[in-house]
């Protein structure tokens, strides 16, 4: 295996991948100073990592390793997949260490890694659920108990830790386990045990482990696990994406987290193998998701039952599942699709999902989490500090901690600008360091000034977000370069840059009323409100005495909503104020749920100004109802 | 216990209940000759009972009794509640025997009863799940395994069999088991075992057993089981209606079938005890159901998860659960509320539920069943001949077989007419037999002629359905008696009747477009179509090449839909033809699910005539999409 020198802490290492269009920049290349992500990074360090570590300790997740090592009493405790929470926490801590040295955290991480290593058997096996009295059942319950899923999270953590610190201990643990897995699993013709996991994750993890170690064998094993699906080895059903071979899949079905993790793994494999059928299947699946089975938030997985995708247009609001982990998995998948293709549509969905489906998963103070993310609530649903099934909290931590790595990427002499956020960056480009600075109040304001501090001939590829439907401009050093670039593309600007050059991009941010395709029952006659990349919602706490279900947003040229200057009451986030009408149901209902349709009586309508808050910030104040899809006056499509 | 003489085959025997307003007439007092129910009764006899008996045999449900008796090999097979399917079949067969002698069926019933009896232990215990190797677990898993639920269905079958045939064998089996249950369960202070079942049913069954045998003890035991709820003995949660004591319940929550069975039991107990808090709770629960948690079909239980009620206004269409058994339980409950109070609202819901939520549960030919009853389908959902969890098929059989018992009831010198259907009846009234005949094409036509063939001084109470919002008239012997009676009431007509007197009731049946309360998201901007008590739907099979989701019903005085004369293509059922517009989504979607709202382009709209079929008859022809809630033009409330 590769030696233990510090490698580049990139989120997905496509630097040697023959079929990737571009390569990420390291997490520590970018320093965020914006008002959305930068505070979250602080929260990850100061709140989420410490409190999650406490939870891992208090809930026996760390003790499970000690029990396996023989240094603590008792049998395995908690869910069979609880090891993965420890691994995701290690990965999150590694990304934090990549960005910012922290001796205390590094020491804690080392200690946890030692405990992980102490639990490992001499043959490399490491899964606490099976290291106690269940040892004879090892490898026999793949459909159900996430054995390879946990291994995958170990591998991801090991790769991140190695990239971030250069230390090899966790990578050694991971490769010993990976070697065992490679020895055990494979086609029966090779004398191996056929099998693949009921919860995908091992695929993408093995590819990353292969990239980090140079071991081709891990990539081959990932291919085996991917293509073993569809033949009944992992349940044989849609829930486990085991109903058909991957190359034949044409719709997002089953457990949503599993589905997007699978696709992320397949994308990683495509980056290495270039098998056209994989990319075709991935594009087909992506299209089926965005055209039929995704929430306006970017959340996926409509059903509580099985945490699964529903059928086309099945997108209930109050009962939306939209698991935080599924949104994170969608980001993982879209990031890989973007790296493969350079197509802006993946960056568009990645940005939208980050702001509106991932971020709602954690409270502004970093102390509580959502597992499900409904689009309306009666007020009883609140974030929790931890869960028995705690996949989401450390998943949020590892994504947020690595977020600086998603802003840019490079390809040859090209720098791609995917996300906009006040920040500074040092980007390695053909052996030289290019210094960039973004000055912006994005996502609240659409003006971004990109200062280039390094001279040279290279290209900038600026993403024109699909949400910016018209009016974008690009200027260089105050000279207009381009107006009305095509939304949902990258604009390529190649020139000899001089230090001090400034690219000024402006994305007009009118308030947009969003409508859903008419077949979406749950949004019929309703609109959602967006401005820039941010989805808004109405919360009861801003509207005492008003039933949000009675509100109808007004539409028309004369009632275009405005950003309220200075209205920053919710942790400094800009709110929106929009014109609306209160139209309570007429008096003719008499307690009935159904009646013969009648022309409503002339209602006394009341005009109100409605305060809207970013959906990602809901449920951070007093409990109360919340609504994303608001009834609307105006044209009935 | 009471002796074995043939008693009156009534569905619920309130003849001795001090707090019941009225008493049912026996099942054999009414002979139906209408076009909806009469054919179903034939189907019950000729198709459902024989095929269900075969299924009970083929699936080991009958063999389970033989295994317990030692006359067959092996251990218990199937779900722990499978005994109840046998008991419901026995009840259904009993109601059939009550109406119509059938030596072959009676012989088969006797044989099954002998096998049931042979399985019973000397101490009276009888539950096949616990009669094999699980015997030591008897009474220890009440929350989960339906032990008392199965007992309740045994008791109901025994009561029906005794009422129908006068034979005592099954009643003896039942009372021996009931005696054991009474000995075992009760407050710890009395040295008994505290407990109550996770699935209600025993309560109503014990009350009926008490009525049939005269044993007060069974009634007391029913009261114990009812009031033991709410203290954690049966799960402690809303799912089992064990979160609060019954008297304090204020919303329909948890598993829908359980909830309505519980309420039916509480109503039966109220009929005997008259405890005001019970009736108050029942009325509160009923109101909460009809105002917030019921489908336009009358179906209840919105969630697949837990087969449970959702929160207020949570009424998804495609994912409606609306279990057939829950609708049957609602009929059971409403029937008892009607018997208690004489309030027409219960009869209204009973009629509506029968036509639109119970009847869809079985195919027109009686060969296949729905467990769930969605309000729209993409065409993939079809009735099945049987289920592993087969509660619905025999539940349908027992309700349909007893249906003649729901048309009338009596109180003193009053005859209540609850349901309208072509039929003849012989009703015992103060020692005399009153002969009545209904001549009508109801529910397809709103004219009913009631011929009175027996002289005497007595009153008729005619139900004016709530759906008949205006224009009803009542005439006697062609002389107008009353016009515009209040919908949702009973009109009382007392006189000295002469043989040949005819009461002619007319209920105008315009096609009505039904709207839901504006908070019902799933019906927003949509209408359902009703005519008389019948709910209609659109099926793809009548509209080749058309996407039902694009249809918009036209509204306005000029477009009142009409019954197509002679249009009886679906097993003779009248269809509706209504004017509609096809308005496909405009071209500006480009495969998106969401977009910035725009005024739709001027669409080329196409006018069509839509064929609607009774919802209860859907999915009886070629598979294809179905839709109850149709989009509508017209006033946006």
Description:
The structure is a homodimer of 637-residue chains. Chain A has 637 residues and is an alpha+beta fold. Chain A contains 15 helices and 23 strands. Among the domains of chain A are: 193 residues, no CATH class; 97 residues, Immunoglobulin-like (Sandwich), CATH 2.60.40; 122 residues, no CATH class. In chain A, the strands form three sheets. In chain A, strands 2-6-7-8-13-10-11 form a seven-stranded antiparallel beta sheet, with no helix packed on it. In chain A, helix 1 packs antiparallel against helix 15 and helix 3 runs antiparallel to helix 4. The longest helix of chain A has 22 residues. About 1% of the residues of chain A have low confidence. At the A-B interface, helix 12, strand 14, strand 15 and strand 20 of A face helix 12, strand 14, strand 15 and strand 20 of B. Strand 20 of chain A pairs antiparallel with strand 14 of chain B, so a sheet runs across the interface.
Low-confidence stretches of chain A: 557-561
Multimeric organization: homodimer
Helix content of chain A: 25-40%
Beta content of chain A? 15-25%
> What is the distance, rounded to the nearest whole angstrom, between the alpha carbons of the first and last residues of chain A?
61 Å
Strand order of the largest sheet of chain A: 2-6-7-8-13-10-11
> What would you call the shape of chain A?
globular
Secondary structure class of chain A reads: alpha+beta
* Average pLDDT metric of chain A: 94
Largest interface: A-B, 55 and 55 residues
Q: Work out the radius of gyration of chain A.
A: 25 Å
């Amino acid at each position: 295996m590769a030696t233990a020198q510090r490698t580049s802490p990139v989120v997905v290492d496509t630097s040697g991948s023959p079929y990737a269009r571009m390569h990420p920049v390291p997490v520590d290349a970018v320093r965020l100073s914006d008002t959305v992500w930068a505070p979250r990074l602080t929260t990850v360090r100061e709140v989420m990592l410490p409190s999650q570590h406490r939870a891992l300790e208090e809930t026996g997740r760390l003790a499970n390793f000690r029990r396996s090592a023989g240094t603590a009493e008792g049998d395995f405790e908690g869910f069979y997949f609880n090891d993965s929470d420890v691994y995701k926490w290690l990965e999150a801590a590694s990304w934090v260490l990549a960005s910012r040295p922290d001796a205390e955290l590094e020491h804690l991480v080392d200690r946890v890694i030692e405990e992980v290593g102490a639990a490992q058997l001499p043959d490399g096996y490491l899964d606490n659920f099976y290291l106690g009295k269940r040892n004879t059942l090892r490898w026999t319950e793949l459909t159900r108990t996430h054995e390879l899923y946990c291994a995958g999270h170990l591998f991801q953590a090991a790769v991140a830790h190695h990239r971030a610190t250069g230390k090899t201990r966790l990578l050694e643990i991971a490769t010993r386990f990976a070697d065992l897995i490679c020895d055990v699993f494979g086609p029966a013709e090779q004398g191996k045990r056929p099998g693949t996991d009921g919860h995908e994750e091992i695929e993408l993890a093995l590819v990353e482990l292969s990239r980090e170690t140079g071991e081709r064998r891990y990539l081959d094993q990932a291919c085996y696990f991917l293509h073993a699906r569809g033949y009944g080895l992992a349940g044989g059903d849609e829930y486990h994406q085991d109903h058909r071979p991957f190359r034949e899949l044409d719709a997002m079905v089953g457990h949503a987290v599993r589905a997007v993790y699978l696709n992320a793994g397949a994308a990683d494999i495509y980056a290495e193998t270039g098998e056209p059928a994989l990319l075709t299947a991935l594009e087909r699946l992506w299209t089926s998701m965005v055209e039929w089975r995704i929430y306006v938030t970017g959340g996926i997985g409509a059903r509580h039952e099985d945490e699964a995708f529903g059928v086309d247009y099945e997108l209930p609001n109050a009962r939306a599942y939209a698991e935080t982990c599924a949104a994170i998995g969608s980001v993982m998948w879209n990031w890989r699709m973007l790296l493969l293709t350079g197509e802006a549509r993946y960056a568009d969905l990645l940005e939208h999902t980050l702001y509106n489906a991932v971020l709602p998963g954690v409270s502004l103070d970093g102390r509580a989490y959502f597992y499900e993310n409904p689009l309306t609530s009666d007020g009883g649903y609140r974030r929790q500090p931890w869960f028995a099934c705690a996949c989401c909290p450390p998943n949020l931590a590892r994504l947020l901690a690595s977020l600086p790595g998603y802003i840019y990427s490079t390809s040859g002499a090209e720098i791609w600008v995917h996300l906009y956020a006040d920040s500074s960056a040092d980007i390695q480009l053909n052996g030289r360091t290019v210094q960039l600075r973004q000055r912006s109040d994005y996502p609240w304001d659409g003006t971004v000034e990109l200062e280039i501090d390094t001279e040279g001939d290279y290209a900038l590829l600026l993403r024109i977000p699909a949400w910016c439907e018209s009016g974008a401009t690009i200027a260089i050093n105050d000279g207009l370069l381009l107006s009305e670039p095509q939304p949902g593309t990258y604009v390529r600007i190649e020139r000899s840059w001089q230090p001090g050059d400034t690219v000024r991009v402006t994305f007009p941010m009118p308030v947009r009323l969003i409508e859903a395709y008419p077949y979406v029952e749950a949004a019929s006659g309703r609109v959602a409100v967006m401005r820039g990349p941010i989805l808004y919602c109405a919360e009861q706490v801003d509207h005492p005495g008003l039933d949000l279900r009675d509100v109808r947003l007004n539409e028309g040229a004369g009632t275009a909503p405005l950003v309220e200057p200075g209205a920053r009451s919710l942790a400094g986030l800009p709110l929106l104020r929009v014109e609306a009408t209160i139209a309570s149901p007429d008096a003719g209902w008499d307690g009935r749920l159904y009646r013969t349709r009648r022309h409503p009586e002339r209602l006394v309508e009341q005009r109100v100004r409605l305060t809207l808050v970013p959906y990602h910030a809901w449920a951070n104040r007093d409990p109360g109802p919340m609504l994303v899809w608001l009834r609307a006056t105006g044209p009935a499509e």
